[in-house]
Structures are given as C-alpha cells and as structure tokens.
Specification:
Elements lengths: L2 H18 L3 H14 L4 H13 L3 H14 L4 H13 L3 H14 L4 H13 L3 H14 L4 H13 L3 H14 L4 H13 L3 H14 L4 H13 L3 H8 L9 H17 L3 H21 L4 H16 L19 E5 L5 H8 L5 E5 L5 H10 L12 H18 L8 E5 L7 H7 L4 E6 L2 H9 L15 H21 L3 E6 H6 L1 H11 L44 H4 L3 H10 L5
Parallel strand pairs: 1-3, 1-4, 2-3, 4-5
Helix pairs in contact: 1-2, 2-3, 3-4, 4-5, 5-6, 5-7, 6-7, 7-8, 7-9, 8-9, 9-10, 9-11, 10-11, 11-12, 11-13, 12-13, 13-14, 13-15, 14-15, 15-16, 17-23, 19-20, 22-23
C-alpha cells in the first residue's frame, strides 16, 4: 500500500470518528480533503452527502449521493437516502422509485418500507401507507418506528382505538422509545381522555425523569381537570427552545387559558400576546404571508360588489343532482360546536376541515384563466367536470357511504369561496355560523392555529378585526349578487335556545328531529377534533363564552370601530 493510500485511510478513520462524535463540521472538512485526493472514494461521497442532507443542503447532498451511486449502484443505503432527499424536495415519484430500488437490492432492509409509508400518508394514499408500514413490521416485528407511524396513520384517519393500540404496542416493544409515549399522550389529550392521560404520564415519568415534554402534558392535564394553579406552577417552570417552537406555543397557550379561568385578565392577555409573538416568529421563518389571503378576498370582493345582478351563462343545471352542504362562517364563530351537534344526528356525517375544494378551485382557476369575468362563460361540460372533481374529492373522506346520509363539508373559511361554489353548485346549501364580532375576533387572537397565509392574520387584534371586516363584506357582496340558499345560525342562539335553533337548522336540511342531538357531548371524545375547540366539545352547552369580550374590554377597545358596523348588522349589543 503506497503512502497516499495510507494517508487517505488515516484521514477517513479520523473523519468517521469525528462523524460518530457529532463533530459534523470537522467531519465534513476531512471528507472533502479525501475527495480532493480521490474523487471516487465511495464512503466519503456517501457520508458527506448524508451530512449535507441532514443540514438541509439538498443540492450538494444530491450531487454527492448520485456520485456514490455511480461508483457503486448496489448499495441500498444510497438509494434510501436519495429517496429521502427527493421526498424533502416534494418530488414524490423520484422518491418512491429510489426507495423501491433500495428494497429491490435488499428486500430485508426495513427503512425504505417505513419511508414509503410516510410518503404515501403525506399523499393521502392511506391504503398504501398502511401496506408499507406493515411490510416494515413484517421484515422486523420489533421495528418500533413502524408501530408509531401506524398509530399516527390511524390517528389521521380518526380510528382512535387502532391508533391507541399501535402506540401501546410500540411502548411494550421498547419502554424507552419516547416518541410512542409522546404521541399517545397527545392522542389522549386531544380526545379528552383525562384518566388515561394521567395514567400514561405517571408511567412515562418512571422511564423519563424530569422531562419537560411530560411536564407540558401534566400541565395540560391539570388545566383540563380544573386545577389551574397546579398547571400554572408546572408550566411556568418549563420552557422550550427554538427547535421545539410548537411546544412553546402550546405552553404559552395553556398558561393564558389557566389565568383566564382564574380571572387574572392581565396575565392571561399577556400570555396570549407572548404566544402570538412566538407565532409571528414562526410565520416569518416559514415565509407565511398574510397579504396573500387579503388579496384573495379583495379580488373576489372587487368583482362581486361591482357587478350588476344577473344570470350566469345559460348552462343547464340538473335539479335532481345531489347538491353539497357547506358549514361556513368566520373562524371561532361556533362551527365546531355545530359540527359536533349535527354529527350526532343519525342521518348526518360531517367532514371536518379537509381540503375538499382544493382541486376544484385549482381547476376552476385554470378554466377561468384567473379572471372572475370568465365565471359567466363556463359551459355545461366544464361545470359537469368541476362537479365530478369536487364530489370525487369528497368521496375520499366519507366514512359511511349511505344514500340516506347528508354529508356536510365543514370548513369555516370556505365562506371566501361561496361565489365559485354557487357558480358550479347553484343548489348548494350553506349553514352560516355567526357570533358576536367582538367575541369572534378575540377568540381568534386567543387560539394557537396551525399557521398559513389565512390564519396568520389572527396574530394581532387589528389584523384579525380587519380580516373579519373583509370576509364579512365579501359575504354580503355574495348574498347581494347571487341567489344563495343559506341558513344563518347565531352561536348565541345555539347556546341559549338550543332546541328551537337546532330544529330550524334540521328543517333547513330537510331532516327530522332526533333526540340524540340532546346528548351530543357524550360521544364527542370518540373522535379527534381537528380544531382548537377540541377540549370543549365533550362538555354540555355552556354560556361562559358568550360576552367574554367584556372581561377584556380595556384590552380590545381599539378594534371596536372596525367591528361596530357588524355588531349593528347582526343585531348584537355593544
């Protein structure tokens, strides 16, 4: 062996040691030095490419791993890692091809099966996701990550018992696997199973001493069981860093809610404000832009408020067709309460906040060339295809296929797209939930939403009030221009005059009364509620959310001038 090869081996041994010790920058330097000596050194291409992938330098990672693949195309790890990079890039077809190639090289290699399951779940191909997670378990019955991923999958599918079973299986296989505890605690907390949550917290504390994440769940447990001072004591003594920003958001939210329950308005409002400062940081990191949603609303408002009332084109509509039902309204207007009540009726299934309209809206945008004037010119075939597209999307999320059921698409801010919906489904029905504008906007400010270009408008009170004003102006322009079949439901009427309000709602839906509606809250913890109201739906009707704004009046009075026209329009008191 010549001196150059000896030097290369020494450098590689040193690089591997630095890599194993976690000294990644030093390891990268050594791998690069090796590649200046021998650009075809397989291991250095592979390990350096993997390190670049871990630091999110995906272009460098692809270059190095493709070079490693050229040097030795029969190493399954290379194909697996290339699959993961293409997954991160959103190039799912290439990702799937590389992962399948890794399995072809080594059918007993577990990770590609698991990674394929994750990709298929992200693509909403739940059947293939389950298939590949099970293949991973088939290759190794003790491969705990696949059990956790099956738990996650069934949680997404709202099959709570199955989700719980797989998380428990993971814990039994490896009592030190923290993700299984974390995800099961989250499942119990989200489905309001307080006793099971308490039991699991106690069990997890035996395995993981003084763990901040467990303490976060403990604080949530004490909040849910009305021991607010204990919850505060725990939550104020933990904190999460920037790598755990979602947990920090949750910690601040529950502290704010605890102080609200104790009527300490200053501290409560302070913690809600701190939470939204963290949310603002997160929105900036993710390049979330509130103006995109505002522009989307303004574009529709300009068209529908400045167009004379008139007929659409002469496209014929089949009146016998099944027309969809939409539950809409501003965020935090009571749509989740209505959803929970209505789904207790034996003839109703509510599809909760799924992207049913996405494909429909994207296709409509192409047909109209993003010009609302062209909505008037859509022909019969285009309307028929758009109908099929929406109904096909809906079919994917229907749990119980039954002609006697009425399916309600619940997505509050579909109120923005009523004009497009009615153009294609003129007989569609809309349940429109409203709430006192002060309460509605304040509640939006007090929620820890999953951030997007729309919901980022709720991170300060002025933005939230202005967004409410724009949405409601758009709604009024719709009802002034279009013959919309809608039924307005006040949150306060649901709470204060339950039976009368629900009977009127069911009449609008052409459904008879059912006494099961009276006990809606008793079955609410069987399903996972996707909205921030998940910890309220397992309770009977209560009134404390009505007029909550009065406690915070001196904190929110600056937004009253923006909202007062809507207070008057909807006949609320100031």
């Amino acid at each position: 062996m010549n001196s150059q090869n000896i030097d290369l081996l020494k450098k590689f041994d040193l690089a591997i040691k630095e890599h194993q010790l976690g000294n990644h920058e030093q390891a990268k330097k050594l791998y690069r030095k090796i590649l200046t000596i021998d650009s075809n050194h397989f291991e250095s291409n592979f390990y350096l490419g993997t390190l670049y992938a871990q630091s999110n330098n995906l272009n460098e990672a692809l270059s190095l791993l493709n070079k490693a693949k050229e040097i030795n195309p029969k190493v399954e790890d290379v194909h697996n890692n290339l699959g993961l990079i293409y997954k991160q890039l959103g190039e799912y077809k290439s990702a799937i091809d590389y992962l399948l190639k890794a399995i072809e090289i080594n059918p007993n290699y577990i990770e590609p099966y698991n990674n394929l399951g994750i990709i298929f779940e992200e693509q909403k191909d739940f059947e293939n996701a389950e298939k590949y997670f099970n293949k991973a378990i088939g290759a190794n019955p003790e491969y705990v990550p696949a059990y956790v991923n099956l738990g996650n999958l069934f949680k997404t599918l709202n099959e709570i018992e199955k989700s719980e079973k797989y998380y428990k299986d993971a814990i039994n296989l490896n009592p030190k696997y923290f993700d299984a505890y974390n995800n099961l605690m989250n499942l119990y907390e989200r489905t309001n199973k307080e006793e099971k949550l308490k039991e699991l917290i106690n069990k997890s504390e035996i395995q993981f001493n003084n763990n901040s994440i467990i303490n976060l769940f403990k604080g949530k447990y004490f909040y849910k069981t009305h021991n607010f001072k204990k919850a505060i004591n725990i939550l104020e003594n933990i904190k999460f860093n920037k790598n755990e920003i979602n947990r920090e958001r949750s910690r601040l939210l529950f502290l704010a809610k605890c102080y609200d329950e104790l009527e300490n308005i200053d501290k409560s409002f302070d913690y809600f404000s701190k939470m939204n400062l963290v949310n603002t940081e997160l929105a900036n990191i993710k390049n979330i832009n509130k103006n995109k949603a505002l522009e989307m609303i303004d574009k529709r408002y300009q068209f529908f408020s400045n167009t004379e009332k008139g007929k659409w084109s002469n496209a014929k509509i089949n009146d016998d067709e099944i027309s969809p039902i939409f539950l809409i309204g501003f965020s935090r207007s009571g749509t989740t309460l209505l959803q929970t009540i209505l789904r207790s009726h034996p003839n109703i299934e509510v599809i909760e906040e799924e992207p049913l309209l996405n494909s429909f809206l994207n296709s409509l945008q192409k047909i109209t060339n993003n010009n609302f004037e062209n909505l008037k010119k859509i022909d019969v075939n285009e309307i028929s295809n758009l109908k099929k597209l929406y109904l096909s999307s809906k079919e994917k999320f229907v749990k119980n296929k039954n002609n006697s059921l009425k399916y309600i698409d619940k997505e509050p801010l579909n109120i923005i797209h009523v004009g497009e919906i009615v153009r294609v489904f003129p007989n569609a029905k809309f349940l429109v939930s409203i709430r006192h504008p002060y309460d509605c906007v304040l509640s939006c400010f007090m929620q820890n939403f999953i951030l997007n270009d729309t919901l980022v408008n709720f991170l300060n009170l002025e933005d939230a009030a202005n967004f409410y004003d724009k949405v409601m102006k758009l709604w009024v322009s719709y009802i002034n221009y279009l013959p919309i079949n809608y039924h307005l439901i006040k949150y306060e009427d649901v709470v204060l005059d339950f039976e009368k309000t629900l009977k009127e709602t069911l009449k609008f839906l052409d459904l008879p009364w059912s006494d099961k509606i009276l006990n809606f809250h008793k079955n609410s913890n069987k399903d996972l509620i996707a909205t921030p109201s998940y910890d309220q739906v397992n309770k009977p009707i209560y009134t404390k959310s009505i007029g909550k704004w009065k406690k915070y009046e001196n904190k929110i009075s600056k937004i009253f001038p923006i909202l007062n026209p809507w207070v008057d329009k909807f006949n609320y008191l100031k």
